[in-house]
């Protein structure tokens, strides 16, 4: 492979540290070095390659004399395509890494802008190298490979509650707003194009229908751009869901308008019949897309019911079914985006009740990873495609388009809000309207749609593309960069910390029922009534079909409670046990403070946990024992190779105690992992302080006293272990009891740092038991 | 205000409108509903509420009905319960669910929030002593889960315990091990649901049109 290093100056290092500068330099060198194969390989000129072969003397003619065996051969054609793809992905990821090395830059300029600039650079470099820029933003590649991961990520993690509550508003903005934008922009552009008699430019050739088509392409708010920019500004949930929901749902309108105008632009006229058909087509496209998505979603949910024995492929079902939904919708020219959203949103509650914790994590991280890479690639490709052209700059057209986009958006939002506020309970204020209008960003979907246009039917295609790119640049750069300071300036409400407490959950449920009841008393079937009916239908019929086992009967409050406890248990292990949980309230209130002061119950059995069925008990005990053994073995081997193994050393006994402690915590976590049904949650009902109970053989419980109520500050890792050392023999025997620390003691202060580090290593080891632990996961639970 | 005639004219409505903030049309609609529920009698009793079929599958039905007969919700600083209510009391209780208007100052919004939270508090505090004790909170959670099958009281108890612990932690901060947290007072309740945005959530839409004939 030819490699050439051109001269360049590392740009934008500024006054960062030398290490950072060096890393950035390396990144840029790599960039330069990798650009050339990209440029070279994608050129149709393959003679380059054969020349190379000749030079190396590996491929000679058929009738040749015996030559020495080629020790090293180069054959690039075979791996060309996967190689290029990997290189692009690698480039995108390195860029993402690079940006975060320059902290100030990433806080001023949103990532999308930086990525477009990188794309421009790469495109420029390729052009400079004399190679032909690869047509990277090919519409097929974009719509079939780059867009679906982003939309699936958005759909799967769509916050259903605010989405449904604001659905009317969102639909109004998406449908009526987009229609208004399209016709306004298209119409005014046509008018402007006609009123230029003095300056005979090609604008005169512009007819009405291509104008309207252009209007419909440019009017749609782009979900990728919105996501990229809004993610960094953290505005409140309502505004976020309004703009984002609009960008998702306007796909149906865009698809219909695009096909309608494209179809008839060649003919030249659109009759009333076509208009009516267009309206019908809109409903078919939108509802059809949702239906297709819902069907696939239900199929996925149903499939996940049976995956309890093959947990490893669970994420695959989620991805494949969703992608199939998208592709199926695209077959019939239905709205693929809506299909994907519907599929993800429908399948999520059922799938999450069925799959294991690890599968859930896998799905989450894969979706985030793919959507992140896709987004990065899309912006880079936008930059590259800009350099590529083809461009036909027309000052009038472009400037009028940009101005019209802004004006149309503002008028549309203001007008629609006036109407919408009549029907909303929580009205939209002027500030909200401003953010909604300002957040209407255009992105790569518009460009790809423009790219799809046929040059013969649309002679003005180049001009369209130039205008589209200008609008995209304007919205992403200008609006993207200024929206953050504007949000600060206008003091728009920000996103609240997502600290869902059990009280809020209780009151959310309570409020739902209360409002439903009041509506019934008032005598009109409103919003809450139908929601309640849907919930009851869901609980009665659908959940039974789609969720495996006992999970189907679990009410939401209990599921939420389990989730919370699971989280706390995991945080407990990860924070090292003795330390107070970072998320826990900084207080010393414990269970004993809220229990009413009664004389202790006559029968101690009153507080005993309910008996488990015999089979389950055995199962749990067996699993705990095997887990314990495995942990012990692991710890022992860990000790042998990595930790100081001198039994006469002072700190060793502490280390042993720590190991015991870790073992217990691991047991506790595995207990939590198994504890997902109603019978066992009591062992975790006290997250901050635990009462002492003698361990009985019949029911496995773990009671650990973590926090001394008297002195929370003195509770730290090392203290605990020192004190625990005094009870070591008891710990050995019963394995589960611990007394509260009696007071600071021990002279081992200098070993603190060492022990802390070892502690960390142990924690990391324990928190990832590895794939072999998967067999024990016979109980699905909600993470 | 004495007993209302069967067809109150405008002057009666003006008074009610001022008191509760409903519009005349809304009061008219609600009045029709009142008469429908009470079978054209002057007052509503608890069994009238129990006749509403839609309400039967509501897990917290009893508490909702109780709220209508709770004097603390009549905005007259009364206490205790009554056996029957007239239209005015019905309207006053309903007015707790009116959405806040678009242009409100911060203090007005705050007072609307307090009012709605007070309503919720009264619903939980069944013995009128000004605090929600652990028992009362347990009862709330039990009722919420009552329709969800045979999950037993233990679950409800532990959820309520965890919730109570959270409230105590938020409100009290540090407590000695022998101190006892009496119960949730109204200030603690306010603090607890500070982020809850109750003024935008605890609303229903009161129609200006009459749809009562469509449903029982």
Automatic annotation (TrEMBL), chain A:
InterPro entries: Cation/H_exchanger_CPA1 (IPR018422), Cation/H_exchanger_TM (IPR006153), NaH_exchanger (IPR004709), NHE-1-like (IPR001970), NHE_CaM-bd (IPR032103). This is Sodium/hydrogen exchanger. The chain crosses the membrane at residues 21-40, 109-129, 141-158, 170-192, 276-300, 365-385, 397-421, 433-452, 464-487. It is found in: Basolateral cell membrane. Residues 45-64, 725-783 are annotated as: Disordered. One of its GO terms (biological process) is sodium ion import across plasma membrane. It holds the Pfam family NEXCaM_BD. Residues 90-488 form the Cation/H+ exchanger transmembrane domain. Keywords: Antiport, Calmodulin-binding, Cell membrane, Glycoprotein, Ion transport, Lipoprotein, Membrane, Palmitate, Phosphoprotein, Sodium, Sodium transport, Transmembrane, Transmembrane helix, Transport, Ubl conjugation. Residues 584-674 form the Sodium/hydrogen exchanger regulatory region domain. Residues 737-748 have a biased composition (Low complexity).
TrEMBL record, chain B:
SUPFAM superfamilies: EF-hand (SSF47473). It is found in: Cell projection, Lamellipodium; Cell projection, Ruffle membrane; Cytoplasm; Membrane. The keyword Lipid metabolism does not apply. GO terms for molecular function: calcium ion binding; protein kinase inhibitor activity. GO terms for cellular component: cytoplasm; lamellipodium; nucleus; ruffle membrane. InterPro entries: CHP3, EF-hand-dom_pair, EF_Hand_1_Ca_BS, EF_hand_dom. Residues 112-147 form the EF-hand domain. It is a lipid-anchor. The keyword Nucleus applies. Signal peptide: none annotated. One of its GO terms (biological process) is cell differentiation. Keywords: Calcium, Cell membrane, Cell projection, Cytoplasm, Differentiation, Lipoprotein, Membrane, Metal-binding, Myristate, Nucleus, Protein kinase inhibitor. Its main location: other. It comes from the Eukaryota. Belongs to the calcineurin regulatory subunit family. CHP subfamily. This is Calcineurin B homologous protein 3.
